[in-house]
Amino acid sequence: MPAATIHAVIWDFGGVISSSPFEAFADYERAHGLPRDFLRTVNATNHLDNAWARFERSAIDLPAFDAAFADESAALGHRVPGRDVIALLGGTIRPQMVQALRVLRERLKIGLITNNVATPGAENAHLTPNPSGRDAVLPLFHHVIESAKLGLRKPDPRIYLLMCEALQVEPAHCVFLDDLGVNLKPARQLGMQTIKVGDPDVALRELRDLVGFALG
Q1: Do residues 155 and 111 lie in contact, with contact meaning Cβ atoms separated by under 8 Å?
Q2: Which of the chain's ends, N or C, has fewer CB atoms near its CB within 10 Å?
Q3: pLDDT, tens digit, for every residue of 134-191?
Q4: pLDDT single digits (tens) 97-117
Q5: Would you state the pLDDT for residue 130?
Q6: Sheet with 143-146: strands ordered across
Q7: From the CB of residue 189, how many other CB atoms can be counted at a distance below 10 Å?
Q8: What's the CA gap between 136 and 139, in Å, rounded?
Q9: Are residues 111 and 166 in contact, defined by beta-carbon separation less than 8 angstroms?
Q10: Backbone φ and ψ of 196, nearest 5°
Q11: Which structural domains are found in the chain, ordered by start?
């Protein structure tokens, strides 16, 4: 796609703007003697309607998620409280991504689609992932869609179309960045350019090539 046809860049948050929670998952697994990638396996099992999916849609609250995730993980061989997993979601904001956002918003539309969970109440404030860094970044976007507020989550194609409607762009004129292939697939099917984020610097070089100008 010629760079001139890109009108909007749409981002995921965790694993893209911030460091991946999978790093914290791996540390937890090692500390508790769990198989490698066990938590990701639980999240990927029945991924459209498991405890994690329902919590990100705000279909269940934190106590219900805590119990449901424990039951689902136990069924796979190791009982893990859901509250433990929520406590692992904090990440470190990647400064090069924030710089790219600042450059992009002056020339293109930028949006955020994040699968997240409802912020726990004050009694559970320690579970809120990296609130200060997140709150500083969100105002940079022209539009933000949070699954917990909308009741809809990636990879449902409707959430991508809602972002396009909000930004007043066609999917074919968008780039979408996410760290999960399952979330990139529907974006591609809608006609978006996609970038799977692993190494953030590699992803930014790919994005630079698509938009046609420097992001540093």
Answers
A1: no
A2: C
A3: 788 999 999 999 999 999 999 999 999 999 999 999 999 999 999 999 999 999 999 9
A4: 999 999 999 999 999 999 998
A5: 47
A6: 143-146, 109-114, 8-11, 174-178, 193-196
A7: 13
A8: 7
A9: yes
A10: -85, 120
A11: 3-19+92-211 (3.40.50.1000), 21-86 (1.10.150)
